[in-house]
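Many introductory courses stop at the sequence. We go one step further.
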Amino acid sequence: MTKDIAMRQAVTIGGDLVVGSVGYGAMQLTGPRVWDEYPDRDQAVALLRKGRRGGVTFIDTADVYGPHSNEELIKAALFPYPDDLVIATKGGFLRGGPEYSDMGSTGNKWYLRQAAYMSMRRLGLEQIDLYYLHIAAFTDVPFENAVETLAGMRQDGLIRHIGLSNVSASAAADRLRRRAGPDQGC
């Protein structure tokens, strides 16, 4: 798909982020089991640049990919970023080692804020255009507290838009509605 075709089929996120219809999910630009660096850094850089030349205006990553090496790779390949490139990243998953069984999650306010700041640093951004809560399956805080943390990060200017990953909009609304009570809605 060419850049012109991708932009003619544009998608608007949050009312003001316009991206082409084809994005790039960078999760596989890591080592095995999404752990460690991609084995051929030059090839990964070339792939990201080729995607950009081909019309990709949206790249999705997360602090847990690598961990961290994926965000650093994107910066190495594409920084300084063109004005039309949106980089979305996520926080809330934790990796305690290379096995999938070493994964956990948290909605802790201080962790999510630190994760966003560190993602900004690794990506070379002053603000993250779209920041996802990577998963809602944490048990350390109520779901709505994590969403409130992201809302505060948005108000503070750390992030521009809030996203949810690995949770449907209806499931998120149900969790908020159950917490608020039957007469309060969400």
